[in-house]
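Hello forum,

I keep getting stuck at the same step: I have a sequence, I want structure tokens, and every attempt I make locally crashes halfway through. Rather than fight my setup again tonight, could one of you with a working pipeline run this one for me? It's a single chain of 153 residues.
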Amino acid sequence: MDKKLIGDGRPAEILLVDDNRGDALLAAHAFREAHVEANLTVASTGEMALAMLAREGEYRDKRLPDLIMLDLGLPKMSGVDVLSRIKSDMRSRHIPVIVMSNSGAGSNILKSYQLHANAYVIKPDNLARFREAISLIEQFFFLLACVPQNIDA
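Reply #2:
Ran it on my machine without issues. Output:
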């Protein structure tokens, strides 16, 4: 299967913020099988994700992501705090954020949308469903919806 490139003829840049190595490996596997060519970067902490988005230090030349997938259960800085910081920063507020959490608690869902998450997905519990969720996410955000193109290099 030939993979598609996004609107400006390049692979999609995806930032996965998740401290669970198993979930990160599942996501990487699912994106390898997806319809859109993608570069997946994993940040295991909220602090690391924010440094990447601010393009600080070793991340200075890193392209901003086209999509952020964010787990709420992070060590130190919570995913809710990371989401709040992303959406309050002019440099990153335009980037779609999908919260992927093990929790289906109504309070987590409501808080995520109040902080301007673009979607809330309960993490699938097996590889087949995880693959399907990733496929639906990438089809929606990269093949159906129009997302802002990052103009930075």
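The chain has a mean pLDDT of 89. If your local run keeps crashing, start a new thread with the error log.
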